[in-house]
Amino acid sequence: MRRFLDANRTYVIVGSVTAAVTAVVVVAALLLGRNLQTASSDVSGQVGTESGTEISGETESTPETMAVPLEENVHPEVNALIQAFYQAAAEGDMQQLSAMAQGLDEKELIYLEKRSAYIEEYQNLVCYTKPGLEEGSYVVYASYDMKFKDMETLVPGVSPYLVRMGEDGVYYIYEGEVDQEVDAYLTEVSLQDDVVDLYSRVQVRYDEAVAEDQELEAFLDQMTEDLTVQVGEALAEAESVRESESDAQQAGGAGSTAPDKVRAIDVVNVRASDSEQAERIGKLQIGDVLNRLESRANGWSMVEYEGKQAFVKTEFLEPIEPEGEASGQSQSEQNGGEGGTDLPASGIVVVDDTVNIRQSPDADSERIAVCYEGSSLEILSHESNGWTKVRYDGKTGYVRTDVLVIRE
Length: 408
Known about the structure:
- This protein has helices at 3-6, 19-28, 37-41, 63-66, 76-91, 94-100, 106-115, 180-190, 193-212, 214-250, 331-334, and strands spanning 46-48, 54-56, 71-72, 101-102, 119-131, 138-148, 155-165, 171-174, 261-264, 268-271, 280-284, 289-295, 300-305, 308-313, 317-320, 347-350, 355-358, 367-371, 376-382, 387-392, 395-400.
- The chain has 408 residues and is an alpha+beta fold.
- Mean pLDDT is 75; it is low at 1-63, 253-258 and 324-341.
């Protein structure tokens, strides 16, 4: 469940916080801990939910959770995990980050990689923990000082994480979805007095840093602006690659890296995410056939398993050639060019992902604009070849129908 990150993109430490203080969470935090981010940041007592309702700061805690205060650096293995994670974040080591944090999506990985160019190191890292709802899990609040390149003043920050233990007894950071019970528990913990106090202390230190260094706030604002553009451009470039691969698949070309059908060549575990520490949700037998949705550079394949997305090591799969040209059609072509069932025939819509807008309905056509997540564009018509004609920023062009996702 991503409600804390998706329901409210504005991160606030306390109710009286200024715009500059808000930046400490948006800029200094890693934009991870998605199960905790907004709840832990908005300790003034109102937390956004998926339905748009609010959870009062008077949420009643169980005696068990209230009896456990924040503990400082008391779990060596958890401390080592968080230390290694921040080291990898500073170095932009995406492979290491993916291995330690389960459930990071493409946008988050790109953000961390781009942001590492600004970071020199993390200093004074302290891990505050409370027990998680599940056995062997912890709610971790990592407090740190960031040293940015070419900046003398350290920037205080605090980021929340959910840490779990894998089947092999090794701890990992969990960034995927959680059920409602765990979600409610994380909200409850984030509103407890000692957590509120921790964020308040960070705010005070941040205020002092900004007051002492007039260039700091301007630097953070400019970095946030630059990262927005850099991440958007990287997502657009990645989308261009996927468009080309999709066209190659439809044309029966050899450029496909993710065929529709794959077969298991050995007995292999099916996991909830692309990590050997991820939850095992099933097992494939030799000869089992399933749909592959994506082949990733880290050696894992996203597959459709029992109606859900799951992951299998790519080395245990082999492609199956599609039977006939129909299997290579996009969903939009199969629907007669009307696009996905959630797309209106025309009108203004807000996109929920970055999309390229091209001069003509062809992946090799010139890109005339990039429509970023949260921006509005106008759907003019759906073409019969799997493209949608749109108007954006005064320009008329085309977007692949199968990548056009509309925000609900």
